[in-house]
Amino acid sequence: MKQATSLKNPSRTVCAVLAAAALAAGLSACAPLVVGGAVVGGVMAVDRRTAGTQIEDEGIELRAANRIREALGDRAHVNVTSYNRQALLTGEVPSDQDRQAVERIVSQVENVRSVVNDLAVMPSSTLSQRSNDTFITGKVRASLVDAQDLLASSFKVVTERNIVYLMGRVSQREASRATEVARGVSGVSKVVRVFEIVPEEELRRAAPPAPVTTDTKPAGG
């Protein structure tokens, strides 16, 4: 299977990997990361959610995780990922009853507008599997950064048992292209799209203005 990240330009590939880490951790790599519209490793960093929605998503994830832990304790492995108040449930639970209970718990969390339940009824994944999932997530993010026709920061990537979930407010073209990129990453067994499809024109209207650059070359240079 062809790798999505090209090795023909090592410096560009390294920059893409570091920029992907910056998108995940809020740190700078190869270029400053500024929320709202700046260049990260040559890619415009834009979160298409409002600041208020981003805060709501963080609150949803925190409250949902706490309530699931109170209800199920250590007998389940559940991840809650919220994007634009849509909560994605991934991981493993011991029974279908627990699966339904988790969905019910999360649907009652404040600000949640919908729940996508992809919990598997099976034993919890191993630490080795979870470490591999984290590695795959990093590779997918790096590949999205490396792509020249996508805004990597418009996507949220989650990996569970080699299954990659893609979230975000994107156009149909971006959804198809990001899916293609993720499928080209080694180790990915399946790609699940949890997108909110938005018309191209709406995305263009909502896009922040391009950053202003200042030419500092001396006169006559």
Task: Kindly describe this structure.
The chain is of the alpha/beta class and 221 residues long. It folds into two domains: 10-45 and 126-206, no CATH class; 51-121, Histidine-containing Protein, Chain: A, CATH 3.30.1340.30. The protein is 40% helix and 22% strand. The protein is built from six helices and nine strands, in the order H-E-E-H-E-E-H-E-E-H-E-E-H-E-H. The protein has helices at residues 10-25, 51-72, 96-107, 127-146, 172-183, 200-206; strands at residues 38-40, 43-45, 77-83, 86-93, 114-117, 120-121, 156-160, 163-170, 190-197. The strands form three sheets. Strands 3, 4, 5 and 6 form a four-stranded mixed sheet that branches. A three-stranded mixed sheet has the order 7-8-9. The chain has a two-stranded antiparallel ribbon with strand order 1-2. Helix 1 packs across helix 4 and helix 2 (51-72) packs antiparallel against helix 3. The longest helix has 22 residues, at 51-72. It starts with 9 loop residues before the first helix and ends in a 15-residue tail after the last helix.
Care to give the gist of this entry?
The chain is α/β, with parallel strands linked by helices.
Structural class: alpha/beta
List the uncertain runs: 1-44
The portion of residues assigned to helices is 40-55%
The figure for the number of domains is 2
Strand content: 15-25%
Overall pLDDT level: 82
Written as H for each helix and E for each strand, in order along the chain, the element string is HEEHEEHEEHEEHEH
Shape: globular
Instruction: Count helical runs.
Output: 6
Q: What is the quaternary state of this protein?
A: single chain
The Rg value, from CA coordinates, equals: 19 Å
Tally of strands: 9
Q: How would you sum up the major sheet? A: 4 strands, mixed
Distance between the termini: 48 Å
